[in-house]
Amino acid sequence: MLESYVPLLMLMVLVIVSAAAMVGLSHLFSASRPTAVKSQPYESGIPPFGTARERFEVKFYLVAVLFIVFDIEVVFMMPWAVTFRQLDILGLGVLGGLLEMAAFVVVLVVGYVYVWKRGALEWT
Amino acid sequence: MSLDLQKGLGLLIALLPETILAVWAMALLLVAAWTHKDPRALRRIGWVSLAGIGVAFLAVAWLWTAHPRLEGLPTSVAVDPFRWAVDAIILLGAGFAVLLSIGYLEREGILIPEYYVLMLLATVGMMLLAGGEDLFVLFLGLELMSVSSYVLAGIDRRREASAEAALKYFLLGAFASAFLLYGIALVYGATGSTKLGFIGFQVQSLQLATHPMLLAGLALLLVGFGFKVAAVPFHMWTPDVYDGAPTPVTAFMAAATKAAAFAALIRVLLRAVPLLHDTWSPVVWWLAAATMVVGNLVALNQKSLKRMLAYSSIAHAGYLLTALVSGSVGGAAAFLYYLLFYTLMTIGAFAVLVYKGRDGERTVTADDLAGLAESHPWLALFMTICLLSLLGFPGTAGFIGKWYILTSAIGSGYALLATIMVLASVVSAGYYLPVIMAMYMKPRLHAEVHADVSVPRVMRGVLTAVAVALVVFGVWPSGLLKTARAGARGFLPDEVVPISQGVPAAPK
After folding, report:
1. Which of A99, B12, B223, B501 has the largest count of CB atoms under 10 Å?
2. Chain A stretch 11-70, residues whose beta carbon is closer than 8 A to a beta carbon of chain B
């Protein structure tokens, strides 16, 4: 049973070796003449100012989290739509699948109404 | 009554308590959205959520007494007395915790109506966890329970300890979930199913008992559950989280969360891999021994009463694991019996802390209770009964529970583990008795020291009922023991629904 994973292992080794070879060999054989300008993080870009580790307002995170929730919702809808005709889990025919998704969406809508009413969607 | 879970109605009836509670929670969430930060509205939502728990409890009681039997193929939820018994215990714990919270939130200035919604949702998760016959339902329940508990632990977010508890709980809990999920994936890879009954069947028919992938999956499942039930060496998060969270939440987590995770663990072990008993029982043996020894020894060294009770709950996880080692129906029955009274006495002990403490109750020590018996004789007596029961003193339900666990362990040939359990219980006297001594034998610092301790009238009734139950079932345990045995009978091999039909194709 585990033998069937040997090709996978070989592929993994091959990937690691070739990736290491590409980086390592180009590092070994390439010419390197660094100057002050060349060794900037972004050559010919805007020079960095200040640190990137600043404190962000919490509302950015809130929007990100809410976005993920409603993003994942669609992820769940995709396989549901694909297998819709076979979704006879409740013994009600196609109606069963529809009801199941309806229940799921109602739960999400409750969350959505809550979030809206609490003002989480307002930026200011 | 017979239930066909393939039909919509059958599934709905089988999930009636969970459905009621989930719908109740969502309705309350909408109410909470239109509620202002007002103590009276908060109190009203508290009572309504308690009513929801009551209705769900009635639904469980109805299902339990109606003896529903499965018809057709088993699906992803269990329909057996074990589930109803654990559901009832979880709902009791949740109801008790909500009652404790009703005055507490106002006193501590946590005017957040979502608190009760989260508590209801966590309860739904626990019930799914206790009733899942499919590893995915178990995982879903676990996540619903955990995510709600993370927020509950940090609900007093202006208090540093509470926020810290939430973050620690979240990080370690997420790790534990990942372990569990990886374990589920490996078990699925080895057996081709996530349904516990099918897994058991596949292990038998394909002789997978030494299959490395299955064993690795099982090990990861044990690690994941070990985190959730706070077994040593996966207990590191427990003291800080229990200490930092608001006390009613701590009581809820220590009792109900643990009950649900244990129920799921026992179901996985006895339904999916009973044939691997020789493989997993030594692991559970060591977990149980380490949990009892470390929990009790470290508890000895705690000054804060809240932290002491946290370690005490770790030690009790060890006792419950002892009931599990034998993998027998007797062990499962002992587990159910102990679980019920563990829930009552743990929440009871935390309840006294709720009424004595302020600002998160972290600083209350045993000496702060000095002379409580003079000013509040009933509360002191209640605390004494709870602590004696936790200790396993004869005449209390805790003693009968421990005795029943010991009998099942010795009967299955685990005499050494039973010895460790007895010795560990003796050690636990070293931290329970000083509290009782302080209440009864030490004088009050000054006359007004307990003046701010007041127990609401409803809670006086509840506490009295708990104390009476702890004593009555410690003296006349036989009726309840019979119920517990009946509750565990679903795990008997001949009672298990035949699973040979509809088995998916064997993996190559």
Report:
1. B223
2. none
What 3 state SS string does B172-203 have?
A: HHHHHHHHHHHHHHHHHHHHCCCEHHHHHHHH
Domain ranges of chain A: 58-117
- The SS3 assignment for B77 reads strand
Could you give the number of structural domains in chain B?
A: 1
Beta-carbon separation of B30 and A118 below 8 A: no
Torsion sign across C-alpha atoms A68, A70, A72, A74: negative
For A119, name the nearest residue in chain B, comparing CA atoms only: B33
B11 contacts chain A (CB < 8 A)? yes
Share of chain A above pLDDT 90, in %: 24
- Closest-CA residue in chain B for A4? B508
Residue B293 within any structural domain of the chain: yes
Q: What percent of chain A has pLDDT over 70?
A: 94
| Residues contacting residue B421 through CB under 8 Å, at least 6 positions apart | B288, B292, B318, B319, B322, B402, B405, B406, B409
Beta carbons of B508 and A1 less than 8 Å apart: yes
Average pLDDT of the residues in B77-99: 92
A91–chain B Cβ distance below 8 A for any pair: yes
Structure tokens at A119: 């003002």
SS3 A83: coil
Angstroms from B159 CA to nearest CA on chain A? 18
Contact of B211 with chain A, judged by CB distance below 8 Å, is answered with: yes
Note the pLDDT of residue B494: 40
Whether B471 maps to a domain, the answer reads yes
CB spacing of B33 vs A96 below 8 angstroms? no
Report the pLDDT value the prediction gives residue B275, as an integer from 0 to 100: 85
Is the ipTM above a cut-off of 0.85? no
Q: With respect to residue B436, please indicate whether it lies within any of the assigned structural domains.
A: yes
Which residues are CB-neighbours of B352 under 8 A, at least 6 positions away?
A: B379, B382, B383, B386
- Distance CA(B152)–CA(B33), nearest Å, equals 17
Average pLDDT of chain B is: 88
pTM above threshold 0.90: no
pLDDT tens string B485-501: 888 876 655 444 434 33
Q: Quick check: A1 pLDDT over 70?
A: no
Yes or no: say if B459 and B352 are a contact pair by the CB < 8 Å rule.
no
Residues B179-237: tens digit of each pLDDT: 999 999 999 999 988 998 888 888 888 888 888 999 999 999 999 999 999 998 999 99
CB contact under 8 A, B29 and A90: no
Domain housing B354: 2-495
Q: Supply φ then ψ for residue B110, to 5 degrees.
A: -95, 80
Contact between B289 and B420 under an 8 Å Cβ cutoff? The reply is yes
Residues of A in contact with B213 (CB under 8 A): 1-2
Beta bridge partners of B134: B195
Residue range B48-77: average pLDDT?
88
Interchain contact, B29 vs A111, CB within 8 Å: yes
Q: What is the pLDDT of residue A91?
A: 65
Would you say B325 and B265 are in contact if contact means Cβ atoms under 8 Å apart? no
Q: How far is A20 from chain B (nearest CA, A)?
A: 29
> Which residues of A fall within a CB distance of 8 Å from B506?
none
* Inside any domain, residue B508: no
Q: How confident is the model at residue B455 (pLDDT cuts 50, 70, 90)?
A: confident
